[in-house]
Design brief:
Number of strands: 0
Number of domains: 2
Number of helices: 11
Oligomer: single chain
Structural class: mainly alpha
């Protein structure tokens, strides 16, 4: 006997699916603007703890925000003006030297030639950026990080607006949130905002401390390209667990080529000491694991962020991963509550 299967899909469900797909397409079409808004929200959240601290000392919010933003961007431009040129110069030298190091370590001639061409192109790009910075074209360096000068200006304006208005982010989220999800989205942001702010402050401080320690250690040991290797160590602090290991590999290899096994062993010991110092003192005190994103999720978030939006995507990846983790935690809790309710119902 043949049975006819009827499938009825409510028109409201079809409409919701269409609206959802249209919303996803719109977000992708406007992804540059979305990135600007997200970066603004993250920067405003990062400055909020400092603003709140000044507010407790009876400083008006407008003055507190102006002071925090002045300090924040002054430090940023000092880094661009003073640290970027020598870092780029050493990075260029390191890229040119890598094929030679690989050849010394036993890499094949054909592989060395291919790598030499690749690293040579990278070195030319770094030199071009270095030349622009030395000629005063700092806008190019800023645009490299933020995806363009206009993007940088909009990020500054939007983040300042969100920061100077105590309810600025809340008002913005209310406008975008569907009425039935408004309370949940605001509560989600309240829980995520403090984590994002503390994580960003802690991560920046952690990267600076590790970079300085590695630089001083390599300088004392007379390892070539100490500044470039220290910069790699600072940047790789974004990668949990594996970051310090990955940053130690090129330093040990360069030490081995330039000074033999004893120097490589001393560099290995240096990185191990710094890592132990970080794990048992710096990280618990500075970062305090306020975000709590699992390492594997952090790594995936960094890779996805780099693929979708380059440097800016990398900077936004962990804060956004923290927000998504809060959503998944809430979803898991609601599933447990539903499961308990079903079990408690009479058969």
């Amino acid at each position: 006997m043949n049975k006819q299967l009827d499938i009825n899909i409510p028109s409201s469900t079809v409409l919701r699916v269409i609206l959802l797909l249209a919303g996803v397409y719109m977000l992708w079409f406007l992804r540059d603007l979305v990135l600007i808004v997200l970066a603004s929200l993250v920067i405003a959240s990062a400055t909020e703890p400092a603003i709140v601290s000044l507010r407790k000392r009876k400083v008006p919010r407008t003055l507190a925000t102006l002071f925090v933003y002045t300090v924040f961007f002054s430090v940023f431009f000092v880094v661009i003006f003073m640290l970027l040129p020598p870092i780029l110069q050493e990075t260029s030298g390191l890229l040119k030297s890598i094929p030679g190091y690989l050849n010394t370590l036993g890499s094949g001639a054909s592989e060395s030639a291919k790598l030499g061409a690749s690293f040579g192109n990278l070195s030319e790009q770094v030199n071009s950026l270095l030349q622009g910075v030395q000629e005063g074209n700092f806008l190019g360096a800023i645009g490299l990080v933020f995806g363009g000068i206009m993007s940088f200006i909009l990020i500054v304006i939007f983040s300042f607006y969100f920061a100077i208005n105590e309810k600025g982010i809340e008002e913005f989220l209310r406008v975008l949130s569907p009425k039935e999800y408004e309370d949940y989205i605001l509560d989600l942001w309240t829980r995520s905002q403090e984590k994002i702010g503390l994580w960003m402050q802690g991560q920046v401080l952690l990267a600076v401390l590790i970079g300085v320690l590695v630089y001083l250690g390599l300088l004392i040991l007379d390892v070539p390209h100490a500044l470039a290797l220290a910069t790699v160590a600072a940047v790789f602090e974004l990668i949990p667990v594996f970051g310090p290991i990955l940053s130690a590999i090129p330093a040990i290899a360069i030490a081995y080529v330039s000074g033999g096994f004893p120097l490589a062993l001393m560099v290995l010991a240096l990185y191990l000491i710094i890592q132990q110092f970080e794990n048992h003192l710096i990280y618990p005190l500075v970062v305090t694991k306020v975000v709590g994103v699992p390492p594997i999720i952090s790594i995936l978030a960094l890779l996805i962020g780099a693929k979708l939006a380059g440097i800016l995507g990398i900077l936004l990846s962990i804060p956004l991963a923290a927000v998504f983790q809060e959503v998944f935690n809430d979803w898991g809790k609601s599933k447990k509550v539903e499961s308990k309710n079903l079990k408690s119902r009479p058969g």
